[in-house]
Amino acid sequence: MKLVIHLFYIIVLCSAVTFNATVYARSNPTAHVDPCPAPNIRTDVRPNAGGQPVKITVGIYMIDLMEINDIKQTLTGDFAVVLEWVDPRLRQLEGCEIPIDDIWSPSLIFINSGRKFTSRPREVDIGTEGQVRYVQRYSGTFATYHNLSDFPFDKQTFRISLISAQWREEDVQLIVDEKMTGHRELLNISDWTVKGVEATTGRQYNNALDKFSSRFDFNISAERIKAYYFWKVILPL
User: Fold this and answer.
1) Could you give the 3-state DSSP secondary structure of residue 23?
2) What is the residue-wise DSSP string for 73-130?
3) 62 and 19 in a common domain
4) In the predicted model, is pLDDT for residue 234 greater than 60?
5) pLDDT at 142
6) Is 44 inside any structural domain?
7) pLDDT tens digits along 202-233
8) Are residues 28 and 106 in the same domain?
9) Is residue 234 classed as helix, strand or coil in its secondary structure?
10) How does pLDDT run across 83-107, given as a tens digit for each residue?
11) Is 42 inside a domain boundary?
12) For the chain, how are helix, strand and coil distributed in percent, rounded to 5?
């Protein structure tokens, strides 16, 4: 009998503690509730799976261009990349900043080989209706093609391309963000004049998927400064 009474008191005590905790949580809604919890979604399943492709707006802004190397066929620069898409599964996270690895993303990579560094956190901002915005800064070298048949009186168009490493064009469609595409007027390149930049989209065969993927191209139109090569190269020779 004493054991039953003892158990009864324990149950009553636990119930009282639970009740008080519930009252405290309701009166202090921010005490235990994380306003930006980790999203409970599958990162390997895209939004609107099986339906229309996810539209990813892409913008590249050239912050600086430091070197164009004809021998190595590379350019060295500093670029800001802005990606935006909508994932309705993230509506409840409006106003949050969360790691991009915790959600689905288009997994875009540069086709141009070379050594690149990022300088921003790998986090996305969540807006209304699941609007996702990812901003990253890439600095380093990018492999490019240089046609030197008219050197040193040549004009070149250097292309930097992004493609989805994991998704077909039926799943992900890249779209140019004109507002976020451009370049800074004052660049550190000394022997070239940048005439302008332009972004286009296309498609490219993805060997890993054995399918075509959507591709984004950032084209840099540049003209070699003839006087620079006359005084620095031709005259000394």
Assistant:
1) helix
2) TEEEEEEEEEEEEE-GGGGGGTT-EEEGGGS----EEESS-S-EEE-S-SEEEE-GGG
3) no
4) no
5) 97
6) no
7) 999 988 889 999 999 999 999 998 765 555 56
8) no
9) helix
10) 999 999 999 999 999 999 999 999 9
11) no
12) 20, 45, 35
Average pLDDT across the chain, whole number: 85
Read off the tokens for 16: 């009282």
- Tokens representing 192? 């070239």
**Domain ranges, residue 201:** 54-234
Q: Which tokens is 103 given?
A: 């959600």
Structural domain includes residue 43: no
Q: Are residues 138 and 94 in the same domain?
A: yes
User: In this predicted model, what pLDDT tens digit does every residue of 1-23 receive, in sequence order?
Assistant: 443 334 334 333 334 434 344 44
Q: DSSP assignment of 147-183, as one string?
A: --TTTTS-EEEEEEEEEESS--TTTEEEEE-GGG-EE
143 and 113 in contact (C-beta within 8 Å)? Answer: yes
Pairwise CA distance, residues 106 & 82, whole Å? 13
Q: Contact 48/85 with Cβ under 8 angstroms?
A: no
